[in-house]
Amino acid sequence: MAKITYIEHNGTEHVVEVANGMTVMEGARDNSIPGIEADCGGACACSTCHVYVHPDWVDRLPGKDSMEEDMLDFAYEPDTQRSRLTCQLKVTDALDGLVVQLPEKQI
Amino acid sequence: MTHFVVVGAGQAGASLVARLRAKGFEGRITLVGDEDAPPYQRPPLSKGYLLGEISRERLFLRPERFYGEQKIDLLTGRKVTAIDTSVRSLTLAGPDGAEESLSYDALALTTGSRPRHLPAAIGGALKGVHVVRTLADVDAMAPEFAEGRRALIVGGGYIGLEAAAVACKLGVAVTVVEMGERILQRVAAPETSERFRQLHAAHGVDLREGVGLERLTEGEADAGDGRGDGRVHAAQLTDGSTLEVDFVIVGVGILPETELAEAAGLAVEDGIRVDALGRSSAPDVWAAGDCANFPLGEGRLRLESVQNAIDQAEAVADNMMGAETPYVPRPWFWSDQYDAKLQIAGLNTGYDRVVVRAAPEAAEDLSAPVSYWYFRGDTLLAVDAINDPRSYMVGKRLIEAGRSPEPAQVARHDLPVKELLG
Hints:
The complex is a heterodimer.
Chain A: E1 2-7, E2 13-18, H1 24-30, E3 50-53, H2 66-72, E4 83-85, E5 99-101
Chain B: E1 3-7, H1 11-22, E2 28-32, H2 48-51, H3 64-69, E3 72-75, E4 79-84, E5 89-93, E6 99-103, E7 106-109, E8 113-115, E9 129-131, H4 135-141, E10 150-154, H5 158-169, E11 173-178, H6 190-202, E12 206-209, E13 213-220, E14 228-237, E15 242-244, E16 247-250, E17 254-256, H7 259-263, E18 272-273, E19 285-287, E20 292-296, E21 299-301, H8 306-320, E22 332-337, E23 340-346, E24 353-358, E25 370-376, E26 379-386, H9 389-400, H10 407-411
Parallel strand pairs in B: 1-2, 1-7, 2-3, 7-19, 9-16, 10-11, 10-16, 11-12, 18-20
Antiparallel strand pairs in B: 4-5, 5-6, 8-17, 13-14, 14-15, 20-21, 22-23, 23-26, 24-25, 25-26
Helix pairs in contact in B: 1-8
């Protein structure tokens, strides 16, 4: 279980608890947090679940695989350090306290 | 209070009702579905869910509580049996068989599609013969996928090939028959077919193209009186051979679910005929998703995809609220087989040549990135990218912008694909 803070582009904060084994994308979906579309449902096929991870968390997350890296390169205003696809971030206890910011739009 | 009713609780129906609320519709919303589960994702059914990697709840597009929170009446396990468009009312069959009527101010049909079955006359109704469409279908077939068993997949389209990949991973011996001259014939170029042919062959699948199914036959019952046991036992193929099989997956396409619309007198022509806004031929009746046939350019189109289900449903939701925005699809698809991720941007209909973009090692290494670019004249129509998200994303951007790269530049694998964006 991890407490995750999602900050919408307009600044609205949502703090929710997400079960281990789910993804950070599913945590947003299951709590109706707007701004993460995840059209493909988590198949790393659409890049519409893009977020900016809080700077403190960049090095604490598991690395990106090449598929995620390549998809992110074409997301809306990606940041080489902070951008992640939330469908590829699996929740564990180690993610407790994670803060992610949502982009202005997905694609 | 204004009442919008949406019939069909799949991807399109779920996207439509969520969009209505997101855009501020304050009237009453009812979403009716004939399956028991709340709206769920279908693509993982033939992939991760069948493999046992994804639980049932994780397939749900929204948690069950979402509908209550958004004041959306979600009626699951309920079938709409008739629509009377003259009085804006529909008939619902209850779980107990009792009928009730429901009035609407506007109605959206997101009834989706249903799989083609094999005729019972050739063994299509035998036990052990499955189609892939619903959670119930996949729950019924999952126990068949046990190590050492023998599966026949009828149809070499995406559904059949994804099922073949899952079966292989689980230790099932797989034969695929495709009666067309090649797998993926209806949807992809020969180059893409060849790549997937190699991939399945490398995993030990017995792929037989240009071979159809003659009939399925049942085993003998224990009584020994010559009567059958009702379960598929063998398959006779059009090349004269016979295969012993333990189960069969039928992936021979889907048909738009238009029965209800037809009975209600709506214009139907390969799907429910709608205009660019999503309006059917009947007043205040709309349609979106797999079941809808919409105008595009000079012609008409019906798309079977998640992209279309989401985007057309959202357009229709907006238009039901008066937006009057024509729907223009920006098609994309994907398929996962083994470790290959296929991503498709655009529609390849009418292509006259295919440009291959691949590094030299791709000939030997099936996991290497490779992409196939479909052109008509100098116009880029579509891209099939396998393990090559960069080509997919570049192709998608170009197609959506109505731009076409030089084919000779596309083929240059030594040039970063991003440079095609100019």
